[in-house]
Amino acid sequence: MTETLTFYTNPMSRGRIARWMLEEVGEPYETVILGYGEEMKSPDYLAINPMGKVPAIRHGDTVVTEGAAICAYLADMFPDKGLAPPPGNPRRGSYYRWLFFGAGPLEAAVTGKALGLLAPPEKSAMAGYGTFEDVMDTLEKAVSAGPYLCGEQQFSAADVYIGAQIGWGMMFGTIEPRPAFAAYVGRLQSRPAAVRAREIDDALMAKMKAESGQ
Questions:
Q1: For the domain bounded by 91-193, which CATH number is listed?
Q2: Which CATH entry fits the domain spanning 5-82: 1.10.10.10, 3.40.80.10, 3.40.30.10, 3.40.50.2300?
Q3: pLDDT, tens digit, for every residue of 72-91?
Q4: pTM, whole model, 2 decimals?
Q5: List of residues 6+ apart from 133 with CB closer than 8 A
Q6: Using CA atoms, how far apart are residues 212 and 34, in angstroms rounded to an integer?
Q7: Fewest beta carbons less than 10 Å away: which of 11, 37, 117, 213?
């Protein structure tokens, strides 16, 4: 019996990353839209994610939160989709490297810059990301090495996670639109699953705005 897959999200959140990954997987899933504030902090949802944040998924009895973890989990649970190098494959190292780079240094540096909370130069060695410039330069080299982070033929969950972060960052001005970033994101955003995910979330955003009278 196929286990039910439920997706908790808001179309104006990092849930858009998980939506893209779900569309890449192509398995049926139910969507639960949660509003910011009371709905995300309700007892029912806090029982799923005590942080009161989205995204989250429930797959049977398993709950997974955090965007990178959701991407990695879905890739491993549906290996026939080819969204992660298999265990034992040398490309698995690059896959882990960039997936965790996105969840660690990249996320911390971009958020820190947006909030004006980057570590001062004399204390950069204490920060896991070092400096914002180091993170951007490292990211540029990674996406310039080939079509995908794990090689020419291996689109993976790491590309979903990193690609979504770069696209989001360039859209809101927290990541400068370097040519390598624009080319990488352009390749990824043309994927059918990425297009479907954007269309679904954009339609949900429009519906929510219409219902709120905005």
A1: 1.20.1050.10
A2: 3.40.30.10
A3: 999 999 999 999 999 999 99
A4: 0.96
A5: none
A6: 14
A7: 213
